[in-house]
User: What shape does this take?
Amino acid sequence: MSNALFSYEKPVNDLSRDYAPGSMDRKRLKEAIDEICSRVAEIPLIIGGKEIFTGNTGNIVMPHDHRHRLAVYHKAGSSEMKEAIKAALDAHSKWAGMSYTDRAAIIMRIAELIKTKYRYILNAATMMGQSKNVWQAEIESASETIDYFHYGVHYMSEIYKSQPASENGAINCIEYRPLEGFVYAVSPFNFTALAANLPMAPVLMGNTVVWKPATTSLLSSYYLMKIYAEAGLPAGVLNFMPGPGSVGSKVVLAHKDLAGVHFTGSTKVFNGLWKGIAENLDTYKSYPRLVGETGGKNFVFMHSSADATETVTAMVRGAFEYQGQKCSATSRCYIPASRWDEVKIELDRMMTSIKTGDPRDFRNFVNAVIDEDSFDNCMKYIAYAKNSPEAEIIFGGSGDKSVGYFVEPTVIKTLNPHFLTMEEEIFGPILTLFVYSDDKFEEMMDICDNTSPYALTGSFFAKDRTAIRKAHEKLKYAAGNFYINDKSTGACIGLQPFGGGRNSGTNDKAGSQLNLLKWVSPRTVKELLIPPRWYAYPFMEDE
Ligand code: NAD
Assistant: This one.
């Protein structure tokens, strides 16, 4: 056995490429896009390392060109779900027993493969499958995924290093055991990096996993599975189970060996999982760990001392990048009346220059929303605003789903700070703003704090230091990620650990040590060097 003590230093975040015209990166990415578009992939389940074709299939299409089929996928049913749980349990002792340096080597090899060989194809699958422009794909499906793996290995070693003192003739240690049983990972469509991290964070800590990926992002998820296999992840450690979540969850939640759920998605689905676990509580061998990062209604709050151009840039990037489908997307704004004219001019300048369309045309800033349900949902909110005496659509307001699911970037101005679109998560390119009277600054912050059930991200723009300090305090629980003079999106692994409270989730900060600690069950071991040989204590002796 090797006696080397490995050192996994704090990594440097991956440097995203810019794909400028004429660059080699752009050329290779375009070749990868052509490759993805030229064939229809077949996506199986993967159980115990074996590809399973159930014959119960569905289609994966491009959101921006929905007649173009990218893949056909096989759906898992209850019996396959049971097999996947068995495969995860069978693989558990071997994977949990493997040296953590070997586990780390596999994870670092995955990061290296994404950084080099698979960067373009993973970005291309994300661009075509999830309708992302090249920058939105690069910063997450490549860079953020790489960061999750590099930081994961570093934080894992920091956790293992954290040990109690040994004194008074004893040696003490904490062994960070993987959980007993299997972990159920359920990922959302919007980030390939989350599809990577949700199952792989528990895997990194020695757990085995049943993974239910989101249907609309299956193409990039399947590429991840291929990369893991190439990097040497043993069969059964991660089992890939496309299909309807409700079918799989029924089997998983009723299983006695369910050790944890790692979820990101809507609050409604997470609440359903939590309730399902509560109903099955008497069944389990251990209390399952529950980690869920869920919805948001993220704000930009402008103070009268703020710079209008900087604030509006943050609003436009925060609200419309990736069509407002980031959990951290800005969807409500508070603008002081004294600055509204300036803000309106800047909004006009930026909104009228935005191009929307297919991500294969690199000039497009906004692409399609993920599917028809999402398109219809966005148009329903727009129609509601159009018909309300309390709201006015000041930019956008139209949509077209004939070729792709394109919703025009839309700004609603409302007279009611509790207007429906100020309160509910829409998950599309729709921003609602409320203009407040400057003398109601503090009252407005209270309203901002109490308007929605969520508390994920929020931005405050000001130059006045007293105002910044006040917002810092008053909005303490309004967001798990709070930005001063920056947009509400764009958290980086290792720099701004991400997650929110209230109905936005359990706030376990994806990609951080806090999250990794959820996937271990520590065992304290004390070894006494010279055990006592008589039971009585000195106080018991005669006076
Ligand atoms: P979603 O809740 O519709 O789906 C998430 C996953 O749950 C998918 O894989 C889906 O198939 C699965 N699912 C659906 N019903 C299920 C069931 N009964 N049992 C098990 N799984 C089930 O969310 P989405 O549309 O993929 O993603 C958008 C949502 O995710 C938004 O609400 C967004 O705010 C949230 N989100 C939050 C964060 C965060 O960090 N807080 C990050 C990304 C996305």
User: Anything to note?
Assistant: The pocket of nicotinamide-adenine-dinucleotide is lined by residues 186-191, 194, 212, 214-215, 245-246, 249, 264-266, 269, 272-273, 293-296, 327, 425, 427, 456, 504-505 (CB under 6 Å). The first helix runs from residue 24 to 37.
